[in-house]
Design brief:
Helices cover about 70% and strands about 0% of the residues. The chain has helices at about 15-35, 40-45, 55-75, 80-100, 115-120, 125-135, 135-140.
């Protein structure tokens, strides 16, 4: 009887690798935006019920986005874990997108209810992108 060793990470295709790197770089850029030039825009997404100051929430989420983006780009053995962490992050910030829609808050050029509503449907795409591009989707099955 032969014992197979479980690999610590799933192999991914060139397309998945490219998609992972693009998403990782996008996350780093978004994180930098949180900390600098888009700070007010991101504050518009923080729901009023969040118990932390809106600016602190934006700063903390920006740091998280930079860390997750770098993990997507640089991690090899833990890339599927990075994908799962990013998917969970997208789920965690989704109430902010809903709050932006419900409270009719303009940010990022989303200045109509239709645009804000359409954005809500993009969040599942980001979740699947994070899971697929890192091989996490395959590992979760």
């Amino acid at each position: 009887m032969e014992i197979q060793q479980i690999k610590p990470y799933s192999k991914t295709s060139s397309l998945q690798k490219g998609a992972r790197i693009v998403l990782g770089l996008f996350m780093v850029l978004a994180g930098v935006g949180h900390l600098t030039f888009q700070r007010r825009e991101f504050q518009a997404q923080v729901p009023d019920w969040v118990p932390i100051n809106k600016d602190a929430t934006v700063l903390l989420s920006g740091i998280a986005e930079i860390a997750l983006g770098l993990a997507l780009v640089l991690a090899k053995k833990n890339r599927s874990k990075a994908g799962i962490a990013l998917a969970l992050f997208y789920i965690a910030v989704f109430p902010g997108n809903i709050a932006q829609y419900l409270n009719h808050r303009d940010a990022f050029g989303l200045n109509t209810d239709q645009a804000r509503l359409a954005r809500l449907f993009f969040q599942p795409v980001l979740i699947i992108w994070a899971l697929w591009s890192t091989g996490a989707l395959k590992r979760l099955r």
